[in-house]
């Protein structure tokens, strides 16, 4: 499991139990831009041990900008009095929690996430009228098969697995084409244009553009809304 700890301190300093578990841990500043310039983690933890107000604001902004992986806050016992549903987190962990409990909580939040994003069967992604079967590399929109190339399918699948989250072109190149791909970011624009054409006029807005940032997958409930402005960047 890849765990991103948003803190100025090392992950083991924020939550010592992480040092005793076999997960990949890395730290990044408590800044939304940290998620735009790194590979997608499996879990995000926000350090809320000292600056509780700042940590709360970070959690709220992360949710508002479309974070689609489990979000946890690491607090001290005294910080529990400030915790409310408005934080938008999936779970909390006390900084003194032992490794067995940390591991159990990680299993619980990632398990719930998998249940929420799984379709009728394993490997099926549903978003309104769009159905993506990752086992057969087939995609349909309103029952109509989409004639996609392999990379078009992989791009659509990746975006649909992270609805609402904005990815830069560089991120999409790394995630879909791989680190050994030497083409430019223009490749992403070309594939997005082809995907939109194949989705058709009714559904082309499923691939949303965030100006000066990149692209995101827009779910059916959000497609009726006007195009969003770039998400705010907050430095805490």
UniProtKB/TrEMBL annotation:
UniProt entry tagged with the keyword ATP-binding: no
Occurrences of domain OmpR/PhoB-type (ranges): 122-219
Keyword annotations from UniProtKB, A to Z: DNA-binding
UniProt DNA-binding region: 122-219
PROSITE patterns documented for this protein: OMPR_PHOB
Domain of life: Bacteria
UniProt-listed Pfam families: GlnR_1st, Trans_reg_C
Keyword DNA-binding included in the entry's annotation: yes
Name of this chain's protein: Response regulator transcription factor
Taxonomic source organism: Fodinicola feengrottensis
